[in-house]
Write a structure and sequence with these properties.
InterPro entries: CBS_dom, CBS_dom_sf, Cyclic-di-GMP_PDE-like, EAL_dom, EAL_sf, GGDEF_dom, Nucleotide_cyclase, Rev_trsase/Diguanyl_cyclase. With 590 residues, the protein is of the alpha/beta class. The protein folds into 3 domains: 223 residues, TIM Barrel, CATH 3.20.20.450; 129 residues, CBS-domain (Roll); 183 residues, Reverse transcriptase/Diguanylate cyclase domain (Alpha-Beta Plaits, 2-Layer Sandwich). The protein is built from 22 helices and 20 strands. The chain has an 8-stranded mixed barrel with strand order 1-2-3-4-5-6-7-8, surrounded by 4 helices. The protein has a 5-stranded mixed β-sheet with strand order 15-16-14-19-20, with helices on both faces. It has a 3-stranded mixed β-sheet with strand order 11-12-13. A hairpin with a 2-residue loop joins β9 and β10.
Length: 590
């Protein structure tokens, strides 16, 4: 490992690197989650390979200390543009620029354009990516510089959203065309409910501000699928492709397949509310809009679409009222409808759950309930949804949930459990079924009474919800003291062990001190004979339902019941994992 040289020698080396063009450009693809095609490349920089300044972290830190940051930033742009053209890469070039370099009083806005002109690259193919290594102080100067870039055809991207000094303010102030979510929030997304909530919130804001989101740091298939389901349109990371001086021109991504489930088993999401309505484009005239509303008397709002993406909403009553004024048609009839539209309609991804959609609608302006909302797929327009249909769907869900919920714990009962198993089998998803049962529960009921028995069951139901991932796992109450968790969390075994530990701690408060000392109590058994029973414990029988092992929910239930009986054959709190059927299946495939 090279030790850090003295500052004087580093200054001389850095000056040589800049003056002699010794920087190397690498490119990392940015892929579309719609079709897996490459949308563009981010240009990255490395110093000379044998130098302490090879690492970009060292390179930019030293340049900042020596007051050479702006010169280095410009040299990096020059190297990246030249290499991008030489490689004949397609799509857009994401060109990293330090915001403070643009906000300098002596900043020359035409310098980057001159580099592009010399290289034969148009600004329409370049996205200025703001990398926030320093706090931004002069927002007005930065906005002026970026406005100059936009007027020349450049787009703007904000890097590392969620990290840095003021990324959310930059988003609000600069209104970039793209935002990149910091990799911290993307890595491990499939197993972290809080990260998923953060990413969903960013996607909702982006949809309603016309911003396109890029998820950085994709390092697994699971995270890619979660990002795609949330509706984020673009991805970048080692799982997609690593930075390379000669990057790939095509990718072979395993994108999430479209929903081919039977209609009765589809997920309860915004996509189910989708209805087709006429659409218009921003340049259509007010007269044409009035004609469309006249032709479709039942349509209350028209989505305004620009290049496949929703940009606004025209409301019937507002348009009719506007053109009902004296001379309005003569003055404004031939003008673009863009001036009449609501630029901030509610826009949601088709995968948004009905519960989440209901919260968005009720928390937002009441007009969204009356006029509806726009539904998208990866940011592209799919159709409209109405507040009436949403309320009806939510009501149906609540009625159905109440009908099939266990009245004691309010958890889904047998019917929803069976349906959820059938959905997982139909989708050919791997899952783990855990059958949970209280041991020696009847004697506890007999000694302490049904009210205390109900308390123990409710306590267990709450524990199950606490150990399960609400985004990945399904908790159900079969009846009595029997429960079921359908895990899709990869760490299901640890979650089961946590459940046993938590139960062992919390159940103690439900026993009298003398019974705790005796580790049990006397009660009559099923034959009416007095017998000593141990304190109630918990048994968990687990089966791993890999693709093709089970065909129906009846088979899953039977196997889980058998595993539960084997778990109950052990004394005290126990976990039994059935391995034989899976081993038999693997032997048949071998």
């Amino acid at each position: 490992m090279n030790e850090s040289p003295c500052l004087e020698s580093l200054k001389h080396e850095l000056e040589n690197i800049i003056s002699q063009n010794q920087l190397t450009a690498l490119f990392q693809p940015i892929a579309s989650t719609r079709d897996g095609e490459i949308f563009g490349y981010e240009g990255l920089i490395r110093g000379p390979s044998a130098s302490f300044l090879h690492s970009p972290i060292n390179l930019f830190r030293v340049a900042e200390e020596l007051g050479c940051l702006h010169a280095l930033d410009f040299a990096c742009r020059k190297a990246v543009i030249k290499a991008f053209v030489k490689e004949e890469l397609s799509g857009r070039l994401f060109l990293n620029v330090i915001p403070s370099c643009l906000a300098e009083q002596d900043f020359k806005p035409g310098a980057t354009l001159a580099l592009l002109t010399d290289a034969g690259l148009t600004p329409q193919r370049v996205v200025i990516e703001l990398t926030e290594t320093q706090p931004t102080h002069d927002y007005n100067l930065l906005k002026e510089a970026l406005l100059h870039y936009r007027n020349m055809g450049f787009k703007i991207a904000l890097d590392d959203l969620g990290e840095g000094f003021s990324s959310l303010r930059l988003w609000s102030e600069l209104k970039p065309e793209f935002v990149k979510i910091d990799k911290y929030f993307i890595q491990g997304l499939a197993d972290d409910a809080q990260k998923r909530q953060f990413v969903r919130s960013i996607q909702h804001i982006a949809l309603n501000t016309g911003t396109r989101v890029i998820a950085e740091g994709i390092e697994s298939q699971a995270d890619l699928h979660v990002v795609q389901k949330i509706g984020i349109g673009y991805v970048q990371g080692y799982f997609i492709a690593r930075p390379n001086a000669h990057p790939p021109r095509q990718l072979n991504l395993n994108l999430q397949e479209k929903d081919h489930r039977p209609s009765g088993l589809k997920e309860q999401s915004a996509g189910q509310l989708l209805v087709e309505v006429p659409t218009v484009i921003p340049k259509q005239s007010g007269t044409e809009i009035c004609r469309i509303f006249s032709k479709y008397p039942l349509v209350h709002a028209l989505p305004v679409i620009d290049e496949g993406r929703p940009v606004g909403l025209l409301r019937r009553h507002e348009v009719i009222e506007f053109f009902g004024r004296p001379f309005a048609n003569e003055l404004y009839g031939n003008k673009p409808c863009k001036a009449l539209m609501d630029c901030t309609p509610l826009i949601v991804e088709h995968s948004t759950s009905l519960q989440e959609l209901s919260q968005l609608v009720t928390a937002a302006d009441h007009r969204h309930l009356a006029d509806g909302f726009i539904i998208t797929g990866q940011g592209h327009y799919l159709g409209m949804g109405t507040g009436h249909d949403l309320m009806r769907a939510i009501t149906e869900l609540q009625i159905r949930a109440a009908r099939h919920a266990n009245p004691l714990t309010l958890l889904p009962g047998n019917v929803p459990i069976e349906e959820q198993i059938e959905i997982l089998l139909t989708e050919q998803r791997n899952f783990t079924a855990a059958y949970i049962d209280l041991d020696h529960f009847k004697p506890y009921n007999d000694v302490y009474g049904y009210a205390c028995g109900d308390r123990m069951i409710r306590m267990l139901g709450e524990l199950l919800l606490s150990v399960a991932d609400p985004q990945m796992d399904f908790v159900g109450h079969i009846g009595g003291d029997d429960f079921m968790i359908l895990f899709r969390s990869e760490d299901w075994k640890q979650r089961c062990q946590n459940l046993l530990k938590e139960f062992e701690l919390k159940v103690q408060s439900l026993f009298k001190p003398e019974h705790q000392l005796q580790n049990g109590y006397s009660s009559t058994d099923r034959r009416g004979e007095l017998q000593h029973f141990p304190l109630s414990s918990l048994s968990i029988g687990v089966i791993e339902a890999h693709t093709g092992v089970y065909l129906t929910h009846h088979e899953v239930a039977a196997a889980a019941t058998h595993a539960k009986h084997l778990a109950k054959s052990k004394m005290g709190n126990s976990l039994f994992v059935e391995q034989r059927r899976l081993a038999h299946q693997e032997a048949q495939l071998a």
